[in-house]
Amino acid sequence: MPLRLRPKPAEFHVYDTTLRDGSQQEGLNLSVTDKLTIAGYLDELGVSFIEGGWPGANPSDTSFFQAMAHGDLVLRNATLVAFGFTRRVGMRAADDPLTAALRDSGAPVACVVAKSHDRHVEQALRTTLAENLDMITDTVSHLRAEGQRVFVDCEHFFNGFLENRSYALECVAAAAGAGAEVVVLCDTNGGMLPPWVGEIVAEVSELGVQLGIHCHNDTGCAVANTLAAVDAGAMHVQGTVNGYGERTGNADLVSVVANLELKYGWPLLPAGALQEATRLAHAIAEVTNVPPSARQPYVGLSSFAHKAGLHASAIKVDPNLYQHIDPAVVGNDMRMLVSDMAGRANIQLKGEELGFDLSDRDLAARVTEKVKEAEAAGYTFEAADASFELLLRRELGDLPELFTVHSWRVFTQLTHDQQTDTECTVKITARGQSQRVVGEGNGPVNALDHALQLALAPAYPMIEKLTLVDYRVRILDQGHGTDATVRVLITTSDGRRGWTTVGVGQNIIEASWEALVESYVYGLLHTDARVAAQLASSPTAPAQPVPAGV
Ligand SMILES: CC(=O)SCCNC(=O)CCNC(=O)[C@H](O)C(C)(C)COP(=O)(O)OP(=O)(O)OC[C@H]1O[C@@H](n2cnc3c(N)ncnc32)[C@H](O)[C@@H]1OP(=O)(O)O
Ligand SMILES: CC(=O)C(=O)O
């Protein structure tokens, strides 16, 4: 059925405010270097405008604009924007130091935030409605006369429109009349819903002014509200990468753009740039140090992860049966999850992903059964791809015995000087060499890890390159207190990539040991040249082994 879609306007702006509104998010703090790095990524993504911050408001924003003017980063796609507010009450724009900071920022565009809600003018600015209109006109005219392009963000526009429609419209008209290229209608408190935004934007469009939209996500509708505004005539969308921003954040610009490119069919970014969206969104998250949400639309780790057996069985026939787009279009990947909800198809597809042929229905059914039994006992393979591969290899008879553990023991004591020290003894045979080794550590897992490494190093010297990088414990049967069953997930790295293994037990040390041993077995299989050669000569060797990542 053909859907109603607005044709792309002749001019359309993708405006990013990650560096300004995004950095208003609680816990998100950017240095000048961070800002330059993020600006580089945004430019690579190909947004039309990058709002760099508020020059004059704080030293790091001022320095950022100085660094940009100095050529520390040269933008290839985007135009830099400096953000600020209208001149102060009772001043001339030409005399206001913050207007001067905008003018002198070196940015070709200034985005000026203006009050457009009468109550805000009277209560927050504590001035008259007429003075606020003059502040808008004076500031925009001054900056235009000084040669800057000007956009105006009308703060609290939607609430203002609902309370005093004619005044809100007067603010838009004043901005446009003074030379603002785009007047951006802001849902500053984020309380709007798509039908309201659509209706109001359509009505404001009648002024014949180029309109933009800036939405916050307080109703969970920031992206939907942005699209409603676009449908009603907006030609400029503001948002932030990963939806960063004040309170619940801003419209996620990647979702907005992906929707417009892929659903509306509007080319907005340079050719090929959307395919970099997942990489760039994650790279930006690395700089902001805010863990990316796995469930983020389009670019999240789970955006194309399939868990349910029914889904996988259809995906085996055609991935599009359970996906709204091809993940590659946004640079993401389909992932098959293995869990107790898996059917044969999940296991076959996951096996294929790892390079194993599980087309044999009986074999796939056997592995599925094993997975379900293990998951019922508390194991989880969704988060532990490496343990799933080992389970698969065991079932295929394709797991050589790399070492035999005869015994292990852990001993923690409080010393006379009130320190605890922990010692672990393991007895292991590896490549025909039997050893009894003692490892020390600051706790039992650390000591087990040291002892295991020491015991394996003579037979497998490369084991020293493997490091435990993450350790997570979870109680499975809450309410059992200290005799509960626990699940341990361990992530190990060889310096280039990581993998996760799982152990389960009523004894936390036993569960840790299991996960630890699995992590070293997996590590040796994938990093020790002699083990790899041994595997390659095995009759059930996978066609092209693909290491599982974390
Ligand atoms: C909706 C938004 O998110 S807009 C972006 C908001 N971002 C920020 O506020 C971050 C950067 N802000 C700052 O560093 C500071 O607030 C500054 C430098 C801008 C101003 O600092 P101060 O001079 O100490 O003022 P303060 O922050 O306490 O109050 C804001 C002042 O601006 C006035 N003001 C608010 N909006 C506007 C506006 N659109 N135009 C002109 N003046 C305004 C307020 O009435 C208040 O005036 P007052 O000092 O006479 O009370
Ligand atoms: C301008 C802005 O950030 C807002 O109104 O939310």
From TrEMBL:
Keywords: Amino-acid biosynthesis, Branched-chain amino acid biosynthesis, Isoleucine biosynthesis, Transferase
PROSITE patterns reported for this sequence: AIPM_HOMOCIT_SYNTH_1, AIPM_HOMOCIT_SYNTH_2, PYR_CT
Enzyme kind, highest EC tier: transferase
Pfam families found in the cross-reference section: HCS_D2, HMGL-like, LeuA_dimer
Domain of life: Bacteria
Biochemical pathway: Amino-acid biosynthesis; L-isoleucine biosynthesis; 2-oxobutanoate from pyruvate: step 1/3
Cited SUPFAM superfamilies: 2-isopropylmalate synthase LeuA, allosteric (dimerisation) domain, Aldolase
Catalytic reaction equation(s): pyruvate + acetyl-CoA + H2O = (3R)-citramalate + CoA + H(+)
Enzyme Commission designation: 2.3.3.21
Location of the Pyruvate carboxyltransferase domain: 12-279
Gene3D superfamilies membership: 1.10.238.260, 3.30.160.270, Aldolase class I (3.20.20.70)
Similarity comment text for this entry: Belongs to the alpha-IPM synthase/homocitrate synthase family.
Protein name according to UniProt: Citramalate synthase
